[in-house]
């Protein structure tokens, strides 16, 4: 059940990012729901037109995730939230290691979700936010051959260079991705500390990489 949920989370992530480079200069001016819809449509089109991705080519899948999806995530905030209170006590080096390994975990473990995208379309729900809000929830549904999948995004508007919307959490069918990992990480930290969590994530990522090679 948990594996299926995480897989659906990543299906949600992989429908993002297709127009990231072309929209970068305008991202700050776009409404968050418009931004999500345009990015989602772009990646869906890219996946449908790439036979290698649909066939499960891991190198093409990982390249797509790295180039088009990760730039749209606030990975530091996602990692900090997943690690919980221990994040503030971790050294800068430990924080970087946690962020790096968490990123690899999502990319390498669930990149296979891309090959499942076929005839899906995205339907946006009305946005409940004011123009001045810096954090919003964008609600949507992914529709395909099966039952519609509820998919919500928590977004923050980042200032400065590269200003625009970033995703820092994802909700599938009422369950938030970061909170799912938070419960797993808490057990590891309680038993082995932050270094133990880093070691566990590293070992898991190495095992996942070995399976795909």
Considering the chains and any ligands shown, give keywords for the structure.
213 residues; alpha+beta; Nuclear Transport Factor 2, Chain: A; 5 strands; globular
Describe the 3D structure.
- The protein is α+β, with helices and mostly antiparallel strands and 213 residues long.
- The protein has a single domain (2-212), classed as Nuclear Transport Factor 2, Chain: A (Roll), CATH 3.10.450.
- The protein has helices spanning 2-14, 20-23, 32-48, 51-54, 58-69, 75-83, 86-89, 92-110, 177-212, and strands at residues 121-124, 135-143, 149-158, 164-172, 175-176.
- A five-stranded antiparallel beta sheet has the order 1-2-3-4-5.
- The two termini are 26 Å apart.
- Mean pLDDT is 80; it is low at 17-25.
Radius of gyration, taken over Cα atoms and rounded to an integer in Å: 17 Å
The overall pLDDT average reads 80
CATH topology type: Nuclear Transport Factor 2, Chain: A
**Could you say which structural class the secondary elements and strand pairing correspond to?**
alpha+beta
Biggest beta sheet attributes: 5 strands, antiparallel
Shape: globular
The number of distinct structural domains comes to: 1
Tell me the series of helices and strands, N- to C-terminal.
HHHHHHHHEEEEEH
Task: Outline the secondary-structure elements.
Layout: H1 2-14, H2 20-23, H3 32-48, H4 51-54, H5 58-69, H6 75-83, H7 86-89, H8 92-110, E1 121-124, E2 135-143, E3 149-158, E4 164-172, E5 175-176, H9 177-212
